Amino acid sequence: MGFDCSRLGLALVRLKTEGLSEEERMLWVERVSEHLQAGGVEELEARYKDAMKMHILSHDKSAAEGSVMEKRGYWTGEREPTSSTSVGKCRACEYNSVCPMSLFRVP
Ligand code: SF4
User: Fold this and answer.
1) What does pTM read for this prediction?
2) Which of 45-80 are b and which e, b meaning 16 or more Cβ less than 10 Å from the residue's Cβ?
3) Domain limits for position 37
4) Is the CB of 93 under 6 A from ligand 1?
5) How many angstroms is it from 66 CA to the middle of ligand 1?
6) For the chain, what is the domain count?
7) Ligand 1: which residue has its CA nearest to atom 2?
8) pLDDT for 39-74, tens place per residue?
């Protein structure tokens, strides 16, 4: 589509949300976005070190392309679906009670 993805990254923010209202959560989204754009993430983490932690992952174009190529087989009908390799993902999955490949079983 012509977007420049050379500086693309993923910001994973862990935030203690207990007790926060929806409005306060939205303020955090704005606060984090502003600091990401301005380059002041470290200062934000230092100021709120007991409440939040941010992980910045850089974009790996070849890894992303490889992942898409691997996954496309399912969508084009070239292969059967495969199970997740993570028990944690299956535990959180809404289909774990009916999925025959689920790695998580309700005790
Ligand atoms: S329960 Fe099934 S659909 Fe859900 S993540 Fe696990 S393997 Fe995938």
Assistant:
1) 0.54
2) eeebeeebebeeeeeeeeeeeeeeeeeeeeeeeeee
3) 9-58
4) yes
5) 22
6) 1
7) 102
8) 888 999 999 999 999 998 888 888 888 989 989 999
